[in-house]
Structures are given as structure tokens and as C-alpha cells.
Amino acid sequence: MPDTVNRQILLVEKPAGKLGREHFKLVEGRMPEPKDGEALLHVRYISLDAANRAWMHGATYRSAVEANTVMAGGGIAEVVSSKAPGLKPGDIVFGDTGWQDYAAVPAKHLSKMPRLEPMTHLLSVYGIAGLTAYFGLLDVGKPRTGETVVVSAAAGSVGSIVGQIAKIKGCRVVGIAGGKDKCHWLTSELGFDTAVDYKDGATFKALRAAAPKGIDVYFDNVGGDILEACIAQMNLNGRIACCGAISQYDGVPSAHGPRGVPGLIVVKRLTMQGFIVMDYMDRRDAALADLQSWVASGKLKVQEDVINGIENTPQALIGLLAGENRGKRMVKV
Amino acid sequence: MPDTVNRQILLVEKPAGKLGREHFKLVEGRMPEPKDGEALLHVRYISLDAANRAWMHGATYRSAVEANTVMAGGGIAEVVSSKAPGLKPGDIVFGDTGWQDYAAVPAKHLSKMPRLEPMTHLLSVYGIAGLTAYFGLLDVGKPRTGETVVVSAAAGSVGSIVGQIAKIKGCRVVGIAGGKDKCHWLTSELGFDTAVDYKDGATFKALRAAAPKGIDVYFDNVGGDILEACIAQMNLNGRIACCGAISQYDGVPSAHGPRGVPGLIVVKRLTMQGFIVMDYMDRRDAALADLQSWVASGKLKVQEDVINGIENTPQALIGLLAGENRGKRMVKV
């Protein structure tokens, strides 16, 4: 029998400005009892995502997280017991478990995952991050061989995969990331053609030098000034895949959008398209088959950043928002 | 033989702020001689378009207009003489004739038009305006029966046709226009379901009342605050057809784009797509066939605003930028 103590991290207050450790509290609750249709889960890995922070602003593609509740978040978990058909003890699932040891979750909100090693890959390349990169780049960005693809937050969980898939598709790939080390890693380890360090200042000029023929596809994880710089350098009929706006999440969002909207959108016939990976789940198996073959052949390198201990989850998110991770960050519970 | 005097309107200076009559000058030049490959044209109708003003800011989808040259602009003209195969005296053509009586233009930059009455329809419903409305709404906006379509500058040349096509396609149609009279005209004459007067203030609230189920397709002619209000009220998977940004043309363009970009684009999976009608010209005949059948059956009403005398062209453009026209404005030379 599992321990009946359930460590939980509560969001005690919604941050008005920057997120800090004071906004969270570790408490010990009781192990929940699954109701009919639910499974009792033992959480193994908690996914850290910039979206965790965005949920604190209000309803997005999910309802807002509320103060004094267990912090929401995706996780990989093992079924302990089940009152739902189709799930049995030992099954591995992905779902919004929240930041806690144990959760009782309706089976209809869970995705059954294959047992594979390392299990962490279910949160990185074969999880939301990998699928977001895959569908966002290929279905929304629609890169063609020889085109220039730019991706921001390029050293992050999604960006690092976007850039590698774009290379597999024969594109010239420019990554935008914060810091020399990350930039060096993108080009030396992941095969990006070049990288722009946005912390170096003069991002617009550096981008111009990195993409001298202009940008055909921009995979936007950040919004804000970097989006503005990219819009100005897009080629005719360019596509912008709008995946997220990390620059706007931690603090007070900008009161304005990027210059050039809609003027440059019209003149250059650009398409800006937002997407959510959930909308593509009917094609998940085909995407996973591609991702698995690229990983097996060594064309796609998987970078993970695993932090130990549920008590470190708040700091792991705060650090992720500050850009300290490389690849997919998660907490081993 | 035609008169050999060629009245021309020069742009004497690019406006720093609002466009005024002082930026133009009427001069008498000489009738040009066509070179090989060119046709000598007698201009019959000059098209007035908000884009005329946008060209003064710099290169767009065409090169910028320059000071002390004949003001650029589209027109319907009759071929006087031709040194180009495929064009003969008496042919009717559309092209960038500029604001003048006579122009010598390379045949490859001209579109041969059918002889039909009234000839003015070649600039309105069967011209750039009608085709822009047709392709922008149907190919970019992709409205489905029962959806809510909002169009700004709804009493203008493009907007008035967009709204009527959307009605033909079974949509609920909301027009945004300036002034009670225009709004009344949209609903009583053109069949729009409702209209919002942006000069009334409180556009956001009025739009909410006019589109209580949210907006599925927004055909944007204006950019700026109205685009921002629409983005905030778009439904999931909504489409914004970016046709122009009239609000930004006459004066100093806004230093920022609309709030909600890219945040709401992501969360609501919106698509914002810019387009230029020239990109669709391979399907012009099919579009014209539809437009002609709708006009013939009375489903599509054509509104034109014809001003007499080339000397009135500057004031006609200044007035158009101030929103005084209803339907397609043009000058009879």
C-alpha cells in the first residue's frame, strides 16, 4: 500500500507581479479516494511549463488556477487503483495531476501512455513538448526545404525540438535564446545553423545577420519585442506559428501588441496562426512514429532537465520563467 | 485626334501628418509617346483608394510614390494607340495610369477589361474592390453558414460588398461604419443584420451587443482600436482577414500594435492572414461570374460615388480618408 500522506503544493496567492516562492506552500493532505469513473494516481514526474504561469492570469484554453488550491500542472503518473473501465493498476498515464503525490482524476481527462524507458521521454519528446513542436512547425508553420525558420525560446523544451525538426526538413534554422552557452549548445550540439543571443541586445540587427534572406517561418514562443523584430523581417507569404508568449507571462502583460500588426501582415501577406496541441491529437500516433524514428536514428536529440523532489517544484517553475533550463524541465516526485 | 494637353496631378510633397490639398498641384504636361511594348491610354475614371495614402509612407506591395511625380493610382482607360501586341485603339484597360488625362503604360502592366455598362462597375464591383471583397472574405475569412461576420469600413467600396457576400453565404453580418446615416444605410439598403457606429464611442460594448455570440470572421479594413476590440471578441478558431489599416494611413502610424497579439491569437487559436487581391488573379474569371450573377439577381447592390473633374481628385482622396464616401469613390476624368 502506498503512503497515505499526500504532499501537495498550493498556490496560496495569485502573483500581481513576478512569481516568487512566497506564492506557494507545501502542505500535507490526505490521499484522495477515487470516485466512480476516476483513477487514483501516483504522480511520478511533474511537467514544468511556461503555461503554468499563464494560467494564473485567467482563463486560457483551460480555466484559471485559483488561490488556495493545489497548483495545476501536467504530470506522468502510475495508476494505483481504478474505478474507471480501461485503466488498471500499473498503467502509466498523462494528465493534469496537479503538484502533488497523489491525485484522483476522471479517466476521461487522462491519456494512457506506453511504458517506455526513460519514462521522462513521455513528458519531453513524446509528450506535449514534442507534439507541440511537431504540429506547430509542420502544420502551422509549413516549412519548405531551403526556407529560413526562426524559433524563439530555442533552448527550451519545444524550441529545441522545433529547430531540429526544421533541420530534418532541410531548412536553414536560426535559434533565439538567452545567453552564450545556450546559443553555443544550439549550434554545436543540436545542429542549428546559427543562434541569436537576445541578452546581448541589438536583437534586430543580430537577427538580420542570422537570417540574411529574411524569415519564412517564425515559431513564436515568446511574443513581445522578439515577435516584433521577426514580423519586420518576415518574407512575403511568411508564416508565424503562435505557440506562446513567455515574455508576457511573468509580471504585468504588455499593454500593446507588436508594431506592424496589421500593416506588415497585409503588405507581406503574412499568416499568424495560434494553435494548441490538443487540437491535433487525432494525429498523435503518426506524429509519435516520426518522432520515435528520428530519435532512434540520432537525428533528434532529447534534452531533459530533471529536478528531484516535489518541494523544489515552485523554484523549478520560477527558474524556468527566468530561462535557466535547457530542454524539457520536470520534477521527479 | 485627342487633345495633346495632358493635365496631371503631381504629389509635390509627401505629407508628414494629415494629407491636404497643398500636397498636390495640377500641371499641364504633354501627351506622352508610347514606346515599344506600351499603349497610349486616355484615362476615363480614376480609382480613389485608401491605399493611395499608404503608398506615401514607403514601399508596400508596390514601390513608394515620390514627391514631384504624377500621383500614382489605378484607373480605367481607353487605348488611344498601341505599340504592344494584344492591345488596339478602343480597348478598355485597367492599370496604374496615375492621376492624369493620358498615360503611356507597358501592356504587361495592364489588364484588358470587357466593354460593359456602366463602365464604372469595372472599378467597383468587377474591379479591385469587388475582387478584394470576394477573395478576402471567401478564401481568407472562410465564413460558414450561421457564423458571425464583422466588417469594418463597412460602407466603403470593399466593406459594402464583403457584408453583402457574407449575407449571400448565410452569415449574420455586422458592419462597423462612421455615422448614423451610413449605419442606417447598411441595414436598410444592403441587408446587414446590424451596424455599429464607431463615432458613437463605446465601440467595444456596441460590438458586444451586435455580436452576442462572438465573432467568427473579422474582415479588417482599418487596424488600430477596432481591430483590438474585435480580437478580444473573436471566437475559438476565428479568422481575421487583414485587408488594410485605414486608421493608420493618414498621419503618423501608431507605434504599437493591438493588445492581445499574440496572447489571444494563441489562446483562441486565431488566424490572422494578410492578403493582396493580385495573388488571386488566376481565379478572377470565376469570381467575376459569381459577382455578375449576384448583381443580375439583385442580391448584390452596387454603390458608387462618382466625382466629376480630374482637378477634384486630391479633394476626393482627402474626403475618402475622412470617410465621407459611400461605396466605391472614383473621379470621372
Q: Can you walk me through this structure?
A:
- The structure is a homodimer of 333-residue chains.
- By secondary structure, chain A is an alpha/beta fold.
- The first copy, chain A, has two domains: 5-122 and 303-332, Medium-chain alcohol dehydrogenases, catalytic domain (Quinone Oxidoreductase, Chain A, domain 1, Alpha-Beta Complex), CATH 3.90.180; 128-278, NAD(P)-binding Rossmann-like Domain (Rossmann fold, 3-Layer(aba) Sandwich).
- Helices cover 25% and strands 28% of the residues of chain A.
- In chain A, strands 3, 5, 6, 7, 8, 15 and 16 form a seven-stranded mixed beta sheet that branches. A six-stranded parallel beta sheet of chain A has the order 11-10-9-12-13-14, sandwiched between helices.
- Chain A is globular and about 60 Å long.
- β14 of chain A pairs antiparallel with β14 of chain B.
